[in-house]
Amino acid sequence: MDCVDFIDYRQWLTLQSKLVWYQPSRLAQGRVSCTNNYDVICYFTKGKAKTFNLNDIRVPQLVELEHRLRCERVPSVRNGKYGKTVFHPDGKNPGDVWGDIKQLTYKSKELVSREMLNTIQKPERLMERLIKANSNPGDLVFDPFCGAGTVPVVCVRLDRRFVACEINSDYCRIAEERMAKAAIGGESSENLFGFSTAGKDGKPAASQACLV
Ligand SMILES: C[S@@+](CC[C@H](N)C(=O)[O-])C[C@H]1O[C@@H](n2cnc3c(N)ncnc32)[C@H](O)[C@@H]1O
């Protein structure tokens, strides 16, 4: 979503994160310039952000022992005293360049069709990290370009409410089918696509989607 640089969204939305999803294994077929091997993911909130669930998205430190020892002998910025850097036992903040989530391949179970590979469908893990970090169960997530419905599917699974838009009616149908499956697998769901499934406890659905 590089076009975000050209849209003045500030009166409506607050840009919370501009993440780079780095895919080192993307095929490097460029001949006239460096091949693009990242996507930009923008996450906005309406008003000030209220949630950041760091503990739900920590990733392994992955630092070499030597580097770790070097970090442990640095003077404090505050008082100049040498102290021990404490590494969180559950891992670190993933930062804003995510290179640890692999792109889908044509063998991925979640891939809905070969046509969706690379250009459209994103891994559920990718959206899961974003949604877990920035929302709590019951919160409302909006995806204006939902493609094959990855964000709605993850929202159903994680018990978030959602509103999603997609211009391509074929993709809407695919998203609808995926959401129905996700709802059967766990949470209940009902939405403006017109399907409805009840959860195990028979309670009414929490999610909704819309077409533009
Ligand atoms: C990169 S895909 C989104 C993929 C999605 N995250 C997934 O995992 O399936 C972007 C989608 O935006 C849709 N799109 C483009 N312009 C749109 C518009 N004006 N309104 C709604 N959807 C639009 C495209 O059809 C495409 O499916």
Compact summary:
The chain is α/β, with parallel strands linked by helices and 212 residues long. The chain is 21% helix and 15% strand. Strand 4 (140-143), helix 3 (150-158) and strand 5 (161-164) form a beta-alpha-beta unit.
Ligands bound to this protein structure: S-adenosylmethionine
N-to-C CA distance: 19 Å
> CATH homologous superfamily name of the largest domain?
Vaccinia Virus protein VP39
CATH hierarchy, class of the largest domain:
Alpha Beta
The description of the largest β-sheet is: 3 strands, mixed
In CATH, the topology of the largest domain is named Rossmann fold
How many domains? The number is 2
Note down, in words, how this protein is organized.
- The protein is an alpha/beta fold.
- It has 2 domains: 2-57 and 93-197, Vaccinia Virus protein VP39 (Rossmann fold), CATH 3.40.50; 58-92, no CATH class.
- Helices cover 21% and strands 15% of the residues.
- It has helices at 65-72, 124-134, 150-158, 169-185, and strands at residues 14-22, 38-45, 97-98, 140-143, 161-164, 189-190, 196-197.
- Helix 3 (150-158) runs parallel beside helix 4.
- S-adenosylmethionine (SAM) is lined by residues 120-122, 145-148, 150, 165-168, 171, 212.
- S-adenosylmethionine (SAM) binds at residues 120-122, 145-148, 150, 165-168, 171, 212.
